[in-house]
């Protein structure tokens, strides 16, 4: 397998993990919205209410930065990263 | 002006700008104490900010294609994040969202999740790859990846339908705010809004829009957060509302139980002015089925990843790496406002409902409420209404009605904040609507001037001529949008949601599969774009004309049906026709690695 194929395989793996986490916070937890809202969560808000206001939103922000860093590492590992031109 | 030097000085330039704006707010506050009228303050805020944007637009004028289309590809990560956030947060986010949460509660908050979660798809599936491609517009990517004028043209069609639906809503919003702040009729205010929008983008294209959007973000975020923090402190709810409103949320639940949700008769409701609503749903309870919530969130997420005016912001970053990081910053800046919207809705509702607060109106006598200053102002603007349906002389929960926009625009006044805050909020709403309208009009005009005129009609056209065409289109599209906005066909929020559905119906899978599925070919992409758009549009028309719909897909989520048809059509047609040639497959391989030259190179 060529270098490029290995790079792409690893990138695809990262995508799958990223999308799985995305799925949990955007869809998964809201399947149980009614049950989860009965429990008190962070800062005293009901869990479901907190996720729609802050929790899921914050999770997405962190997820994107995490993804960007991981992808950069993968690019470096296979020598595909750009020269320092930022 | 825009040399490398300017880029290095950006933090300083915008630091001074922010300081200057805060200074302006303080001067207005002092002027208010000295007797400046509310109307004069409103005019000063809107006029001053619009003048600054126009100045930035003029300073950013350019005659180079690279600067006009992609801001010279040198916008730093964090600043591009701010510009994207302003580009993204429209009149709907700023003016209408807190109102929607106020009235509909949980079911509506799917929009918060949808309009943020979509950025994960943008960052992981599309933005870095399209940046590597080095295109000027989204149809540019479709046209080159799949080849052929028909594919390019189909992409322009989908882009135009989605963006135009969206832009009429934004011009409508600028018109609404300009008409309230400047006290002129809506039909004229719409055109004042349009001229302000064009001042930002006409001369500098993407470069002008980028630097005005950063300035607009700063105005809109100050205008949104300041009242939230102020009200929270004023009513003693906590100095940092986001972490401290749990008791207030619980208190609203108690009050709802105490007052009860009484259903009004149809005859009573007929007396309420059009567009106003009462509180009929619990504030923090789960009041929607999982599928209703998830389908709306999903439609908005996929729509986010298909809207060209957002995607093209990531064409302006210096590198692929910067494009990825920039998506994170965009969402961070959006998060600041979105996480505050439910807090504003909570504070606004509590201020009105709680009899223990001096601002509460439920349980007070009708005559008392009708004598309040702010009630009279907003009632005159057709955004507030009380009526004694049961004839007991006091205002009940089901007897108070408000327009969705009033939650953001009127809450500072209701909570007893000085008028200078209301003026600031008007300027913020104007900034939000203008920045989005600019991005959208530019996306449409660029697609038509670059993809239709330059790539299809006259490939030999000189740069100067291309830019003249682009600017003429900008004005024409703007006026068309304003004319339709002046007719007031659909509300702001409804149009915006439709735009997302149109975009996802036609563009989501052709874009994503263009990067992630080498086997996708021209015939498949064309079938996907046109089939998806046609299916989505058909479903919308069917449901609007009395169709029952299926699978719980409503007129707000028709994109789910459209994109499903798009996916099936694209896969089936691609597999039935010849696979893409070697050169195209190699191109896809190159898009997948960040290093090396962009596919289209420097044009």
Helix and strand sequence of chain A: HHH
Low-confidence stretches of chain B: none
What does the average pLDDT of chain A come to?
87
Could you state the CATH homologous superfamily of the domain at 39-255 and 283-347 and 418-493 in chain B? Sodium/glucose cotransporter
CA-CA gap between termini of chain A: 31 Å
**What is the quaternary state of this protein?**
heterodimer
The major sheet of chain B is characterized as: 3 strands, antiparallel
The number of helices of chain A is: 3
User: For the CA atoms, what is the radius of gyration of chain A?
Assistant: 18 Å
Identify the CATH architecture of the domain at 39-255 and 283-347 and 418-493 in chain B: Up-down Bundle
**How are the strands of the largest sheet of chain B arranged?**
1-3-2
N-to-C CA distance of chain B? 23 Å
Q: For this structure, what is the CATH class of the domain at 39-255 and 283-347 and 418-493 in chain B?
A: Mainly Alpha
List the uncertain runs of chain A. none
CATH-derived topology of the domain at 39-255 and 283-347 and 418-493 in chain B: Sodium/glucose cotransporter
Average pLDDT reading of chain B:
86
Brief sketch in words of this structure:
The complex is a heterodimer of chains A (86) and B (603). Chain A has 86 residues and is mostly helical.
Describe the secondary-structure layout.
The complex is a heterodimer of chains A (86) and B (603).
Chain A: H1 3-26, H2 33-36, H3 47-77
Helix pairs in contact in A: 1-3
Chain B: H1 4-8, H2 10-33, H3 38-59, H4 65-70, H5 77-88, H6 91-104, H7 106-133, H8 138-146, H9 149-182, H10 186-201, H11 205-234, H12 241-244, H13 246-259, H14 266-269, E1 276-277, H15 290-304, H16 308-311, H17 320-338, H18 341-353, H19 366-371, H20 373-380, E2 384-386, E3 400-403, H21 406-414, H22 419-457, H23 463-487, H24 492-516, H25 522-544, H26 558-576, H27 582-591
Antiparallel strand pairs in B: 1-3, 2-3
Helix pairs in contact in B: 2-3, 2-11, 3-10, 3-11, 3-22, 5-11, 5-17, 6-7, 6-18, 6-21, 6-22, 7-15, 7-17, 8-9, 9-10, 9-22, 9-23, 9-24, 9-25, 10-22, 10-23, 11-22, 13-18, 15-24, 18-21, 21-22, 22-23, 24-25, 24-26, 25-26
């Amino acid at each position: 397998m060529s270098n490029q194929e290995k790079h792409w395989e690893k990138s695809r793996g990262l995508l799958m993990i990223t999308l799985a986490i995305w799925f949990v916070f955007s869809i998964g937890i809201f399947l149980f919205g009614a049950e989860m809202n009965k429990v008190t969560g962070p800062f005293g808000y009901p869990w479901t209410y907190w996720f729609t206001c802050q929790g899921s939103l914050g999770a997405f922000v962190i997820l994107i930065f995490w993804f960007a860093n991981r992808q950069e590492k993968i690019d470096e590992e296979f020598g595909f990263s750009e020269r320092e031109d930022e | 002006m825009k040399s490398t030097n300017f880029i290095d000085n950006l933090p300083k330039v915008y630091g001074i700008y922010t300081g200057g704006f805060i200074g302006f707010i303080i001067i207005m506050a002092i002027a208010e104490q000295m007797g400046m009228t509310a109307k004069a303050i409103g005019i000063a805020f809107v006029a001053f900010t619009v003048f600054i944007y126009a100045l930035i637009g003029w300073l950013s004028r350019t005659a180079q294609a690279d600067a006009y289309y992609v801001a010279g590809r040198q916008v730093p990560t964090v600043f591009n994040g701010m510009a994207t956030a302003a580009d993204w947060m429209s009149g709907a986010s700023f003016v209408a969202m807190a109102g929607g949460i106020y009235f509909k509660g949980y079911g509506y908050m799917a929009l918060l999740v949808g309009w943020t979660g979509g950025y994960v798809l943008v960052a992981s599936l599309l933005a870095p790859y399209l940046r590597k491609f080095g295109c000027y517009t989204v149809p540019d990517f479709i046209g080159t990846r799949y080849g052929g004028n028909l594919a390019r043209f189909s992409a322009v069609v989908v882009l135009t339908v989605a963006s135009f639906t969206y832009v009429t809503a934004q011009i409508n919003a600028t018109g609404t705010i300009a008409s309230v702040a400047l006290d002129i009729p809506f039909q004229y205010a719409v055109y004042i809004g349009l001229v302000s929008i064009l001042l930002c983008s006409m001369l500098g294209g993407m470069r002008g829009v980028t630097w005005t959007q950063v300035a607009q973000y700063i105005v809109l975020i100050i205008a949104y957060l300041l009242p939230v923090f102020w009200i929270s402190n004023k009513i003693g709810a906590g100095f940092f509302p986001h972490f401290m409103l749990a008791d207030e949320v619980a208190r609203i639940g108690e009050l709802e139980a105490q007052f009860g949700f009484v259903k009004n008769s149809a005859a009573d409701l007929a007396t309420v002015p059009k567009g106003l609503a009462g509180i009929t749903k619990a504030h923090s309870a789960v009041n929607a089925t999982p599928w209703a919530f998830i389908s709306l969130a999903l439609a908005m997420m996929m729509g986010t990843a298909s809207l060209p005016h957002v995607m093209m912001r990531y064409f302006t970053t210096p590198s692929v790496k910067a494009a990825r990081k920039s998506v994170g910053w965009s969402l961070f800046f959006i998060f600041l406002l979105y996480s505050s919207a439910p807090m504003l809705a909570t504070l606004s509702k509590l201020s009105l409902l709680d009899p223990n607060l001096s601002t509460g109106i439920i349980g007070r006598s009708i005559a008392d409420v009708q004598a309040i200053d702010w009630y009279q102002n907003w009632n005159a603007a057709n955004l507030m209404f009380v009526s004694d349906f049961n004839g007991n002389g006091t205002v009940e929960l089901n007897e108070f009605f408000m327009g969705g926009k009033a939650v953001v625009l009127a809450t500072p006044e209701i909570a007893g904040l000085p008028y200078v805050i209301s003026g600031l909020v008007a300027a913020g709403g104007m900034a939000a609507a203008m920045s989005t309208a600019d991005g959208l009009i530019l996306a449409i005009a660029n697609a038509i001037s670059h993809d239709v005129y330059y790539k299809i009609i006259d490939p030999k056209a000189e740069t100067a001529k291309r830019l003249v065409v682009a600017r003429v289109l900008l004005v024409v599209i703007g006026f068309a949008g304003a004319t339709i906005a002046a007719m007031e066909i659909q509300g702001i929020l409804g149009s915006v949601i439709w735009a997302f559905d149109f975009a996802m119906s036609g563009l989501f899978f052709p874009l994503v599969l263009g990067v992630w599925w080498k086997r996708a070919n021209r015939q498949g992409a064309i079938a996907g774009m046109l089939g998806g758009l046609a299916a989505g549009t058909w479903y919308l028309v069917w449901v609007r004309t009395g169709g029952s719909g299926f699978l719980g897909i409503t007129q707000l989520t028709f994109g789910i049906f459209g994109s499903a048809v798009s996916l099936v059509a694209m896969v089936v047609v691609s597999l039935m026709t010849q696979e893409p040639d070697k050169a195209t497959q190699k191109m896809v391989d190159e898009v997948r690695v960040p290093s090396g030259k962009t596919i289209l190179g420097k044009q």
